[in-house]
Amino acid sequence: MRRWLMLLLALALLAAGAGCARESGGKWEEGDYLLYFPVDSRQEVYGSALDTQPYEGEAEPSVESLMEALLQGPTRDTLISPFPRNVSLIAWEWKEDGVLCITLSEQYSGLADISLTLADYCIVLTLSQLPGVEGVEIQSAGYSVNYRSHQLLRPEEAELVLPQATGT
Fold first, then answer.
1. In sequence order, which ranges of the chain are alpha helices (DSSP H)?
2. CA distance 9 to 161
3. pLDDT tens digits, residue range 25-43?
4. Cα angle for residues 103, 108, 112 (degrees, 5° grid)
5. What is the pLDDT of residues 126-141, one digit of tens each?
6. What is the mean pLDDT of residues 4-18?
7. What distances in angstroms separate CA 167 from CA 32, 161, 162, one per listed residue?
């Protein structure tokens, strides 16, 4: 339970920095895109559950190009892919109110618990950088993953606001 809470807190702290500006060479630049991946826990015992690497594709990526880069996995040694082997993007569509619905191949339905949460938020945080994306719904082979508490995932959900400590 303690590790679960630490992972959620680490994910929350990472997401707090997930905006439109990215750090590059000590400077913040607008318009750069990042791919989100879990940190290889064999390399870092404590710290953030997710980290980023720069997207190295077109300047204005599409849903397909960001998902393709994400599903190919990280190039940094300290990151790992959260996706089962052979997962692919089947389709995507815009729904109302800035919701992007992603349909992945059936291999995605093999994820559960923290593995599913990490994979979900790697997708959500990556795709939420695209203009107009307010939330993401993720399906596997056309079906919603029924053991999620809710289907519409928003990047701000990854933020955890801890209550202010009061002096006692």
1. 2-16, 63-72, 113-127
2. 9
3. 333 354 699 999 999 877 6
4. 125
5. 999 999 999 999 999 8
6. 40
7. 42, 18, 15
> What's the rounded Cα separation, in Å, for the pair 79 and 76?
6
pLDDT, the chain, mean: 78
Both tokens of residue 109?
Answer: 């339905």
**Which long-range contacts link 49-52 to residues 24+ away (Cβ below 8 Å)?**
49/7, 49/10, 49/11, 49/14, 49/118, 50/10, 50/11, 50/14, 50/15, 50/118, 50/121, 50/122, 50/125, 51/14, 51/76, 51/78, 51/79, 52/22
| DSSP E strand boundaries for 118-163 | 135-140, 143-144, 152-153
**Tokens, residue 133:** 């994306």
Question: 124 CB contacts (<8 Å, ≥6 apart)?
Answer: 135, 136, 138, 153, 154, 155, 158
